[in-house]
Amino acid sequence: MLENFNRYVVANIGALSDGLWVTIYVCFWAFLLAIVLGLVACFVRMRVPYLRVVAIAYIEFCRATPILVQLLWVNYVWPEIFGFPQTVTGAGIIALALQSSGYLAETFRSGFEGLPKGQREAALAVGMSRWRIVSRIEMPQVALVIAPLVINQLAVVVKSSTLVSVIAISDLMYQGLKIVNQWYEPIEVLTTIALIYFILLFGISRTANYAYVHFQAKFGLANAR
Amino acid sequence: MFATLHNAFDPGLFWEYRVGLLTGLLRNVIIFAESAALAAALAFVVGAASLSRRAYVRWAAVAYAEFFRNTPEYVLLVWVYFVLPLIIGKVVGTKVNLSPEVAAVLGLGVAYSGFLSETVRAGLRSVAYGQTEAALSLGMSGFTTLRRIVLPQAVRRMLPDTVNQLVSLFKATTIVSLIAVQDIMYQVSMISVAEMRPVPLYTGAALLYCIVIICATQLFQRLTERWRRRGWA
Question: Domain limits at B184?
């Protein structure tokens, strides 16, 4: 057991850590893009009269399609129809971002709709512009309330990112499967990978939990969930 | 414009391969049903154990739930498919083979039992403890109390969240194609290799999933709404 561990895991630690960096890189950009797309979709859905239908269709499509299907769809279909993404890494990032942006848009909306309407009316009455109301009055409160949910969505992104190995992005899972296919000794390598992902995700979900408890105690938020 | 649209979405291609695709979808549904049953059964045991009076039982249940909630489904699936047979083989002493279908059901079932056990736990805790105490003081056994008093109320409160979990389980059944279960995504990749036309097939698959899942979600929401109105849930 230990001998195998040394031969297959320790000897390949370089490849595995490269894979881990790719995973982190993909997740970081996908999550950032998802937040931006989610905010846009959320605002269009709430505030733009005619485009609302488009935003609803977009959100529902993103939420109702499995990540593997989206991944293959973006990877094979988008380059032929839209002309981008040109690399598999780009396709992976876009697919992960698409999926999460749908969920995040709904999370943001629940945050904005949870605010009392009177605040907005009062701000309008004192003559604040719409953008200023969002940035000064609504955003700071919403950010605190939804922070745990957004962090949990990061956990979903990391979880789904295991699938980008399917379109040959050399993430942690890809490197692990490569070693397995090379030596056909899966026990140690796959168990190590499962543990690495577990530690990553457990850390993220603990952070979300901490944000939930901490913010609630510190700012006296109403029950967000 | 029309040519691009036709290239992007071609229902005729789907009609041509309808038998294979529907067989694939059926396999998805079967794997979904089996792993949902496994997950529910495990989740009830773990959820009940996480409220046990014995500290070590509680800790074991929490560790189980946390581990399977925080490990990606794909990693679990691959682990069950490649590693589990080897470990069983070493323990038993003979070579064991796990068919992809069995591995898929085991992997997904165990992964989702982690999520569902949290739902079960929340549901069981939502029934006021005074009711259990009252039932016990009337002389009901622990099991009877659970069966007659706690579960009927808890199950109703679990329903909406369980529906959400089941929808994500159905979405997760797409990944079983990666361990060569011949489900719908497997068929789609096979056909797109044969036809050399990935664009309409993957677009069609995405739309198909979208429609199936939105319909299923709506249906379940209607049903739970009706149950609630009748006072069942």
Answer: 2-229
